[in-house]
């Protein structure tokens, strides 16, 4: 079986893809999709709302709306508190999907998940550089628990690592979060 | 491919970009949604037979082509899973802190039963071309995609234990972007005096896959061993007589005759073998 040319699931035209990126782009209908998938990717671009020093870049995240099931065990009271303060057992989990190194990914993923900032959206990247999305949504979906715990176990809650809770990611969206890059470090600008 | 430029795929990946026009390409999928990469054969049947013959001769201790017959040769695809194995999660360190764990590595796992066929060795930089051939048979895939995560856990066990020091935690094992590669192989069945054997060659490199253990244990080998030992005894007795009794004439004679006998017999064997293996003109082409 020969390799096949990737076509847009919406308009059927040939798509382009940057080397190393995991998403194909249709120039005709200006949409993104994952190779071999039948649907387009839902994309959101956040606006810069903070002024800081550093290079302005857009970092892609897969954002999942997640439901949590937690046993009533006393060991999980931290998770229960974490979840039920405002969000009643449901929250967004952000999974970084660019090659920014494991340390940056962990920090950014934990920050975005814990803070879940509100932001206004833009229709384009303007002249700001965007980092390539190198992770498929199916891969990122499996990392939801890791980034949730990164946000939740920041204070070293040993008990929270034990069994007794589960995460169910449902809807997903590719969100480009504006960041300031200085050296190897990234700082979210939302 | 849209513009005619060859597309290169990474070994661990299912999509690629045309370096010239930027068009996106991906591997085909089977009915169950698994990415399939079928490699072309680098060795045709003549090259594979030549490689097999040389290998069998070497394995049989310098045997000639007349000592064995290749009775069957056919191409066969070996299904091999290639994916990124990942262990990710949190664990409780010995000092009580919670620490993250994120380890990944590229793995190649046989999708078939390797007990008889063996498993090919993979070398960086081996050139492989994605093929459109589907007419060659493939071994049945025994390792199904739904057990790859379980396989990942087995494969990552040592690394995780090393990283966590055996501490408890919540670790998730994933097999990322698995691709089922159909690796080309040649199966060569041949017959010696001791019976029939099967040699499996890598269709990309010509290397042996099943590491066949065969030796030619027949009367010829025994005769050669007896001859070598006899010559050695004659020469050694010459040395012993010369050293012990001082009969130098007899000693030199025995040493020379021992070495001479060994050289003469082997030279005769070499001449006879050369005569035997000289190619003969085929009857139909004799007058051409």
Question: Rg of chain A to the nearest angstrom?
Answer: 18 Å
C-alpha Rg of chain B (nearest Å): 29 Å
Derived structural class of chain B: alpha+beta
The biggest beta sheet of chain B, please?
5 strands, mixed
Percent helix of chain B: 25-40%
Low-confidence stretches of chain B: 279-288
- What is the mean pLDDT of chain A? 86
Strand content of chain A: 25-35%
Number of strands of chain B: 7
Q: How would you spell out the order of helices and strands of chain A?
A: EEEEEHEHEEHHEE
Separate helix tally of chain B = 5
Task: Describe this protein's structure.
Chain A folds into two domains: 1-39, no CATH class; 42-188, no CATH class. By secondary structure, chain A is an alpha+beta fold. Helix content of chain A is 19%, strand content 32%. In chain A, a hairpin with a 2-residue loop joins strand 9 (165-182) and strand 10 (185-188). Chain B folds into two domains: 15-202, no CATH class; 219-279. The longest helix of chain B has 30 residues, at 248-277. Chains A and B meet through strand 1 and helix 4 of A and strand 1, strand 2, strand 3, strand 4 and strand 5 of B. Strand 1 (4-5) of chain A pairs antiparallel with strand 2 (24-26) of chain B.
Structure characteristics:
heterodimer; A: 190 residues; alpha+beta; 2 domains; seven-stranded mixed beta sheet; 19% helix; B: 288 residues; two-stranded antiparallel ribbon
Fold topology:
The complex is a heterodimer of chains A (190) and B (288).
Chain A lengths: L3 E2 L18 E3 L4 E3 L9 E4 L8 E16 L6 H8 L5 E7 L5 H14 L5 E2 L6 E2 L6 H6 L1 H9 L12 E18 L2 E4 L2
Helix pairs in contact in A: 2-4
Chain B lengths: L14 E3 L6 E3 L8 E4 L6 H15 L9 E24 L5 E13 L3 H4 L30 H17 L4 E24 L2 E8 L16 H26 L3 H30 L11
Parallel strand pairs in B: 3-6
Antiparallel strand pairs in B: 1-2, 4-5, 4-6, 6-7
């Amino acid at each position: 079986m020969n390799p096949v040319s990737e076509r847009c699931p919406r308009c059927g035209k040939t798509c382009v893809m940057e080397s190393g990126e995991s998403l194909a782009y249709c120039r005709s209908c200006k949409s993104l999709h994952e190779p071999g998938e039948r649907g387009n990717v839902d994309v959101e671009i956040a606006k810069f709302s903070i002024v800081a020093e550093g290079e302005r870049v857009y970092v892609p995240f897969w954002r999942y709306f997640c439901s949590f099931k937690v046993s009533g065990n006393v060991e999980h009271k931290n998770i229960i508190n974490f979840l039920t303060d405002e969000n009643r057992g449901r929250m967004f989990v952000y999974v970084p999907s660019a090659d920014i190194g494991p340390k940056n990914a962990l920090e950014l993923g934990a920050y975005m998940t814990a803070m879940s900032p509100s932001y206004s959206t833009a229709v384009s990247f303007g002249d700001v550089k965007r980092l390539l999305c190198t992770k498929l949504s199916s891969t990122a979906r499996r990392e939801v628990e890791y980034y949730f715990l990164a946000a939740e176990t920041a204070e070293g809650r040993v008990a929270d690592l034990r069994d007794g809770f589960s995460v169910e990611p449902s809807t997903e969206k590719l969100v480009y979060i504006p960041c300031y890059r200085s050296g190897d470090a990234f700082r979210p600008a939302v | 491919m849209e513009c005619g430029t060859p597309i290169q795929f990474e070994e661990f990946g299912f999509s690629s970009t045309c370096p010239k026009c930027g068009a996106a390409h991906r591997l085909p999928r089977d009915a169950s949604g698994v990415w399939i990469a079928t490699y072309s054969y680098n060795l045709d049947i003549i090259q594979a037979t030549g490689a097999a013959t040389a290998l069998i001769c070497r394995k049989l201790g310098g045997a000639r082509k007349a000592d064995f017959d290749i009775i069957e040769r056919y191409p066969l695809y070996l299904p091999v899973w290639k994916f990124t194995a990942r262990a990710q999660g949190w664990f409780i360190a010995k000092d009580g802190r919670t620490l993250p764990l994120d380890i990944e590595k590229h793995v190649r796992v046989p999708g078939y039963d390797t007990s008889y066929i063996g498993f090919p060795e993979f070398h960086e930089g081996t050139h492989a071309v994605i093929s459109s051939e589907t007419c060659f048979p493939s071994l049945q895939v025994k390792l199904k995609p739904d057990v790859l995560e379980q396989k990942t856990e087995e494969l990552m066990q040592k690394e995780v234990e090393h990283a966590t020091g055996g501490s408890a935690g919540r670790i998730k094992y994933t097999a990322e972007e698995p691709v089922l590669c159909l690796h080309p192989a040649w199966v060569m069945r041949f017959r010696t005096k001791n019976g029939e054997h099967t040699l499996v060659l890598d269709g990309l490199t010509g290397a042996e896959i099943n590491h066949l253990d065969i030796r030619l244990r027949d009367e010829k080998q025994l005769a050669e061993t007896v001859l070598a030992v006899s010559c050695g005894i004659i020469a050694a007795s010459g040395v012993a007589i010369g050293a012990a009794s001082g009969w130098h004439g007899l000693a030199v004679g025995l040493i020379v005759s021992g070495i001479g006998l060994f050289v003469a017999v082997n030279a005769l064997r070499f001449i006879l073998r050369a005569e035997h293996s000289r190619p003969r003109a085929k009857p139909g082409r004799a007058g051409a």
